[in-house]
Design goal:
Elements lengths: L14 H5 L19 H4 L7 H23 L6 H24 L5 H21 L5 H26 L2
Helix pairs in contact: 3-4, 4-5, 5-6
Length: 161
């Protein structure tokens, strides 16, 4: 029986050490010797860039400004209209931020429904400020929300595996 050839020590690469590690030094499959990842490391994949945060803030400011312009109807600006603009812009920006943060964990149907609901509610609220009936505002919000759902579902369905 022939003896196996051994490579000189200076030619060995670090992967040779892996075969000589004792059983108690071996780690379970998939684990690291540095311990489990911290929660802040797991969230790095879903952090928003400064550009995305700025875009969400601009969306809230624009929506609040448009809300104020509709509520004012060409008259003088009041503190009530300013409060309405600030609150509606902040609520829309916060809801959009929350949806952007969790959308990757949602299935495509729920994600499209969430965006459609947010769109329909935002447009329906804006239309209700014009003084039209609640039924008409609800109908317009519903039509645009369902339209947004259908478009987004189609986009998610055709572009995701």
């Amino acid at each position: 029986m022939a003896t196996p050839l051994r490579m000189p020590a200076h030619h060995r690469t670090p992967w040779h050490r892996a075969s000589r590690v004792s059983a108690r030094e071996r780690l379970p499959q998939g684990s690291s010797r540095y311990g489990p990842p911290h929660s802040r490391d797991r969230d790095r994949g879903h952090r928003l860039s400064p550009l995305a945060i700025g875009s969400l803030l601009l969306l809230g400011i624009g929506y609040g400004g448009y809300t104020s312009a509709i509520a004012r109807s060409g008259g003088a600006a009041t503190y009530r209209q300013l409060a309405l603009a600030l609150i509606s812009g902040a609520v829309l920006a916060a809801l959009t931020f929350a949806l952007v943060r969790v959308q990757h964990s949602l299935i495509r149907e729920v994600r499209a429904a969430a965006w459609g609901t947010l769109t329909g509610c935002a447009v329906g609220f804006l239309y209700s400020l014009t003084g039209q009936s609640v039924l008409l505002s609800t109908g317009i919000g519903l039509v645009l929300g369902v339209s947004a759902f259908l478009v987004l579902f189609y986009l998610y369905y055709t572009r995701e595996p």
